[in-house]
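Thread: "does anyone have the structure for this chain?"

Original post by V.I.:
We have the sequence but no experimental structure in hand. Need at least a predicted one for the grant figures.
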Amino acid sequence: MSRRIAAIIRHGDYYQIPGAPSAHQPFPLNADGEKQAAESADSIASILRQHNWSLNPEIDCSRMLRGWQTAQIIADSLGEKLSRQLQLQSFDELAERSVGCAANLTSEQIRDIIHNDPRYTDLPDDWKSNSEYRLPLQGAESMLEAGERVASHLLRRMSALPDEDTDTLKLFVGHGAAFRHAAWHLGVLAYEQIARLSMYHGCPVFLEFVDDGCWQHIAGEWKVRSANSQYLD
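Reply from O.Q.:
Generated one for you, tokens below.
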């Protein structure tokens, strides 16, 4: 029976507003990010050859510019290597955790807004890294909620893949924290691993989707996070 494998890929490095925790910043990849995306295509081409997997021609990506650019570089490079045309499809569901109407403000500004709003108590010290915490602002979500959204997308898209005679790989380009929390929802990571792990820019992690709805990590390295870091993307 043929296998279905999802490659989850964190976008490349990008230009950011200093001190702003929002992952909805609308800025492009920097030079390092472009290089990371190109290297991602090389590693995907290598594993396709190694395992004789076929590649689904549709690459799912975040609507954030850095996600789309990463996917476009991968599509162009892989398409050239494989002599075939690859297409991008962008989805809101692959976005990183939203901080709602506080998007693209600095951490200090967000803390001041909550402090000065008589409806709310002050933010907890770990508000940015707490998987279950959601800002009390319109449009905000927790990282677990973002992960559930991404997990649902992965499940829906992988379930819809056509039956093939060969093992099939499908690419998903998005954001590190949302992917890690999705991996917990899918049973790939334990809850305590979410805070200990991150994702390398442009380095795919390969998850096999099994027919009974189970998932398993089969290739690609998670990044081990330093003890004092806070995961945002």
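V.I.: this helps a lot. DSSP finds six helices and nine strands in the chain.
O.Q.: and The first strand starts at residue 4 and ends at 10.
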